[in-house]
Amino acid sequence: MSLSNLVFFYRRRLRARRVQELLALVGIAVGVALLYSVQVSSTSLSGSVEQLTQGLFGKSQWQLVARGPRGLDEHLVSQLEASRDVRAAVPVLELPASVNGRTGTRTVSLIGVDPRIGQVGEGSLPTGYGTVLAALRALALPSAVAGAIGARFGDAVTLDVGGRAQPARAGVVLSRDQFGALADAPIVAAPLTYAQELAGMPGRVSRVYVAARQGREQAVEALLHRVAAGRLDVRPVDFDARVFAQAAAPNDQSTGLFAAISAFVGFLFAFNALLLVAGQRRELIEALRLWGFRTGSIVRILVFDAVVLGLIASALGLALGELLSRTVFPPTPGYLGLAFPVGAGRVVRWETVAISLGCGVLAAVLATLVPLVLDISGRSDPEAAGTDAGSLARALRSRWTLVASIALLAITVVVLIAAPGAAVVGMLALIAAMLLLLPRLLSAILSVGARMQHRVRGSVVMLAVGELRAAGFRSVAITAIAGIALLGSVAVEGSHRDLLRGLDRDVHQLTAVTDVWVTAPGPANALATTPFGIDAARRLERSAGVAAVGVQRGGFFDVGDRRVWVLAPPATSAELVPGEQVLEGDPAQATTRLRGHGWVALSEALAHEQGVSVGDTFLLRAPQPTRMRVAAIISNLGWTPGAIVLNADDYARAWQTTDASALRVTLDPGISPAAGRALVERALGAGSGLTVETVPERERSQRQVSHDGLVRLTQIAVLMLGAAALAMAAAMGAMVWQRRQRLAAVKLLGVPTRRLWHAMLLEAAVLLAVGCTIGTLAGIYGAQLLNRTLTTVTGFPVTPSLPIPVALAAYGSLALIAFTIAAATSYIAAQVPTRTALQD
Amino acid sequence: MLEVRELVKEYRPVAGESVRAVDEVSLSVGAGELVALYGPSGSGKTTLLELIAGVQRPDQGAVLVDGQEVAALDQRGLDRYRLFTLGIVPQSLRLVDGPTALDLAALRLTEQGLSWKAAHQRAMPLLERLGLRARADHQAGELSKGERQRVAIAMALSTQPRLVLADEPTGNLDTRRGQDVLSLLAEYSAEQGASLLLVTHDPQATHYAHRTLALHDGRLDASKAAPADPVPGPAS
User: Fold this and answer.
1) Residue A173 Cα distances to A53, A133, A336, angstroms
2) Across chain B, how many H-helices and E-strands are there?
3) Sequence-distant (≥ 6) Cβ neighbours of residue B229 within 8 angstroms
4) Which of A176, A193, A509, A790 could serve as A578's disulfide partner, Cβ 3.0–4.6 Å?
5) A469 touches chain B (CB under 8 A)
6) A452 contact B CB<8A
7) What span, in angstroms and rounded, lies between the C-alpha atoms of A57 and A328?
8) Which helix (H) or strand (E) holds A113?
């Protein structure tokens, strides 16, 4: 069949079903929008890290990286430059910092570079300004950072770095026009010597980026390993992006799964809308067969319809998704921002667009063809042509579907107990089982309704039950929307709340170990990973009201592809690892061992990756490589890439530093935390650059970070409910609207308008109750599946519970919104003029 | 008793001239009388029925049923009129597919306040009379067109209305079933003393009608109106 014929058929049929096609279009567009916006949000985070490396150091191949916050000696650079194989060696100082302006504070990486960066960068910082910036004691701020803190050229700002508050000026604002993606990066740049001065690290750098002369790559790599001498790391230039991908994977996996569920709701919306025209399409298939068309031609006609619909809907979905990703789902680095320079810029990859577009078209094709499979294959019941109650509805109530749904539920049990890594399979099996059970459940309820209808006077129950039985597959599809939306929403939000509870518990256990905390400032230091000088501890020890000061050390540290959190509490702590966090080994014995010399506790995934268990030896590749023994296997303490715990003295030896990352201040008896905080602030003096917090304050700031990073899950759950409510209301409204002539006929027979309305309300209530109930139950079960996956696969510290409040809230809101909209549309439909009944 | 006085209904299209679908029609149908109304397609028969059923309002004239003007009824009054006074058999009634034939036949009775049990007891003999006993428990969606048409007749007559309007009630039926239906309608009219206006193309209908009227271009054609031949039906 020629394209012109296909277009001819399409245009002729479109005229008769504009509204239905529009509904399908909206459904697919909603699904595509959700899929696109969540993907953009995820790729923007990883893209931001990649762009930063690419923009600044993209022309280099390796980096020589210091293992500790004190960095490496800058003189190593001249040693590298002396080699004829090295084209460029660029020293960089990179430290976590906070920059404060007139209107706000922003967590950034302070990047100190010298003019040599031009030899390895692509986007390149304004090195020409280096001398001027140094002379002015000024910083280069990306426009995103400058905007966030309200700083313009020449404005005074304060930089908190290394536990010191340093005054500086905004010297250059890096605009998007000149510097591309760097304008969105969470950095402040400064000439190297000035950055070293700000950080109090003269002559020290964090890493050296190295570019080899062409063909000399292997020789340079060998040279770097010789220079590193086992005390520094030699990494590929894109190492940070790789480590970031590992850290972001759990978050990406969970949001990806939830986005897929959301997209499925959108697909069902479209499916429902296309069911409205399934009757017409059946008649068309019958007619085409009578005219002698072959199955191939019929399929081509239907697929052409679907592809046109899919393309238009996907284009609309991409536009909507773009809007969502800018407003509802902006990239939120959350806890990942603690260890990575993650920007807020949006990165849209062609793969994202292609996947969203492909899914949209596929959804349209499936939604068009699936209800007509039996008709296309010529195995449908001719009597059912033109009606809703097609063979598919009957097929869905067969015994085989019951067997299949039980088998699918069995798969979910296996996933729950034995294979939590297969969460996606488990969730899909749960969704499929629920979808297969729905027709049977609905049919059973309607049978009960049919038996009950004669006990109630009047026609309301009879009309409602009769219509629902007649609607067949469409009734099932509407309940399926409610079911899937609630399953997704309750599972996502239930699991999300359990995760937050788990994180909060961890935060509490790690925080409520002293009276007052002293740390370097800034939200990026929520895990107390920024070092500062030990002088503050000495000052505090001499202060009245202070009973004891414990020095805690720690920071981030790369082990393989993991950026793990190293926590080194004082050896005198009551518990070095909270008992509940110990997964293998005896908690009391673990604390005893950790207090002694040469013991570490490793998080589960890290220990597994290193192939060690309790009692084994583990080489800690710190600046001073040290062989340690494993005292216990612990949870990841809320930091998904993993955690290492050792005592502060061992840390000082291995990292060759006396700096603290936090001070634990114990107050004299009778001094309140608030009064204690005040006296500690006084003892430290103004301008110390350190933050003093009571336990509740510190818990609050830590919680804020974890909650911010996971807020997208709540947004998805809410959006999913909203989309489902609209989808259900639209589908129910369309279903009611399509039968206006039947409604008019019943009115003609003397049944009052309000009775018709009541019958339609009853229909909506039945569909909502069935869909919402089964969806909620499946959602509660789904939350357990996700919890198990988050705990065992991603290592998130989940506190499992039955998400009853979440389930009730989701059930109530979906039912209320959908019922209200359905009530309004059915009220309008009930006003149909009686004469409609007499029209052909 | 039905009385139609100088009834006029005009349709005014957005473009073009207005059309008088019903043009000064006056007629009456007495209690127990069956009147057959003939006319070609587009002659205004259905519009006339719609005006009598209160589905449309006339531009001029009046429809009186037992002395009550239909156009003067409010919505509540119209609902009661259709439920208690009128029984209408449209040309093709799109029924709800889910309920059984018996439930549909009993539907209006339950709306009148009867229990389903009592309504079923009243409706069943009607279905039997219409040859639907064996199909009483089948859902409407499972019935043929002819069976659905007979269910619609059962629904109309179940409440024993004083006025019955039937628009081509035998259109979907074979000759024998058509005769059965006409016979039933005639019997009903006679037994209940109901006024029955029958719009039809079926030549058999004249045998059951007391009078025959012809409608042409919205006007009653007096030259073609005639008393019916008193053949087999109860009208004789």
Assistant:
1) 19, 12, 25
2) 6, 11
3) B206, B207
4) A509
5) yes
6) no
7) 32
8) strand A105-113
Give the integer Cα–Cα distance in Å for A626 and A130: 40
State whether residue A387 sits within 8 Å of chain B by CB.
yes
CA atoms of A712 and A647, how far apart (whole Å)? 36
A537 and A560 inside one domain: yes
Contact A462 B107 (CB under 8 A): yes
Q: Provide residues of B within 8 Å CB-CB of chain A.
A: 46, 49-50, 53-56, 75-76, 79-80, 82-84, 86, 88, 90-99, 103, 107-108, 110-111, 113-117, 120, 139-141, 155-156, 159, 167
Distance from CA of A469 to the nearest CA of B (A): 5
DSSP β-ladder status, A617-620 and A626-634: antiparallel
How many other CB atoms sit within 10 Å of the CB of residue A570?
22
Q: Residue A332 — very low, low, confident or very high, per pLDDT cuts 50/70/90?
A: low
Q: Is residue A459 helix, strand or coil?
A: coil
A555, A574: one domain: yes
Asked if A544 and A678 count as a contact pair (C-beta separation under 8 A), the reply is no
Q: What is the pLDDT of residues A197-243, one digit of tens each?
A: 888 888 999 989 898 888 888 898 999 999 888 888 898 888 888 88
Q: Strands (DSSP E) along A507-598, which ranges?
A: 516-519, 546-559, 562-568, 582-584
Q: What is the mean pLDDT of chain B?
A: 86
Closest C-alpha among A708, A578, A713 to residue A643: A578
Nearest CA in chain B to A741: B94
| Single residue among A689, A723, A751 that ends a domain in this structure | A689
What's the number of domains chain B is made of?
A: 1
A679 and A549 in one domain? yes
Residue B81 DSSP label:
I
Is pTM beyond 0.80? Reply is no
Q: Which two tokens stand for residue B29?
A: 């149908």
B50, B103, B108 ranked by CB distance to A750: nearest: B108
B186's tokens = 């005639």
Q: Quick check: is B69 in a domain?
A: yes
Question: Which domain covers residue A51, as residue numbers?
Answer: 1-56+249-387
For B59, phi and psi rounded to 5 degrees? -80, -35
Which tens digit of pLDDT belongs to each residue from A580-633? 888 898 989 999 999 999 999 999 889 998 999 999 998 998 888 899 999 999
Which of A457, A466, A741 is opposite residue B99, by nearest beta carbon? A466
Do residue A74 and residue A199 come from a single domain? yes
Q: Half-sphere exposure of residue A573, counting CA atoms within 13 Å on the CB side?
A: 35
B234 phi and psi angles, rounded to 5 deg = -65, -20
- Our CA-based measurement puts residue A441 at a distance from the nearest CA of chain B, in whole angstroms, of 17
Query: How many domains would you assign to chain A?
Result: 4
pLDDT in tens, B79-119: 899 999 999 988 777 777 778 899 999 989 998 889 989 99
> Cβ(A775)–Cβ(A818) under 8 Å?
no
The token duo for A441 is 């459940």
Question: Which residues in chain A are closer than 8 Å to B171, comparing Cβ atoms?
Answer: none
Rounded to whole angstroms, how far apart are CA atoms A682 and A545?
Answer: 12
Tell me how far apart the alpha carbons of residues A261 and A265 are, in angstroms, rounded to a whole number: 7
Give a yes or no: residue B232 inside a domain: no
Task: Sort A494 into a burial class: Cβ within 10 Å, 0-12 / 13-18 / 19+.
Answer: buried
Inside any domain, residue A189: yes
Q: CA-nearest residue of chain A to B53?
A: A748
Residue A517 has phi, psi (to 5 degrees) of -110, 140
Last residue within a domain, chosen from A211, A236, A261: A236
For tokens 């109650």, the residue is A389
Per this entry, what is the length of chain A?
840
Residues in chain B: 236
Classify residue B127: in a domain, yes or no.
yes
Query: 3-class SS at A172?
Result: strand
The confidence score (pLDDT) of residue A382 equals 46
